[in-house]
Amino acid sequence: MRWLMSLGERTRPDTPRYAECPAPDKARALALVDDFAHLFTVLREWREVYGDELTAWAIEVEADSIENLPAELIDAWEWKGDPIRIDSERGGYLRVSDYRDAPVRHRISTRTASGLPLWTAKP
Question: Is residue 122 very low, low, confident or very high in pLDDT (cuts 50, 70, 90)?
């Protein structure tokens, strides 16, 4: 199992904590890493590119390559279980929210800008 992380979209200025969770084929940035801790290295790089305050969504997946993600994974992204939300906040702080014990995943939208910068991290 590996970790797949998608850059969230904060599309509601009136609700600063709201962040959409785009599907892998719609995300502005996507990362596939071997270990959960490697997600934080990717987040540090994303902060340099996308700004200090951002949100990312991560789940464990069975995938060998970020370029060839299984179609079933992309199709089922909105309903996939075990999401982890990571918020990068002012001052360099991170807030990690684990929704794996939540009985129902809230509906999310996959509307984002086009383009897909690929990020990977290996030990």
Answer: very low
Calculate the average pLDDT of the chain: 79
Residue 58 pairs with which residues in a beta bridge?
5, 84
Residue 81: predicted pLDDT: 58
Other beta carbons less than 10 A from residue 95's beta carbon:
11
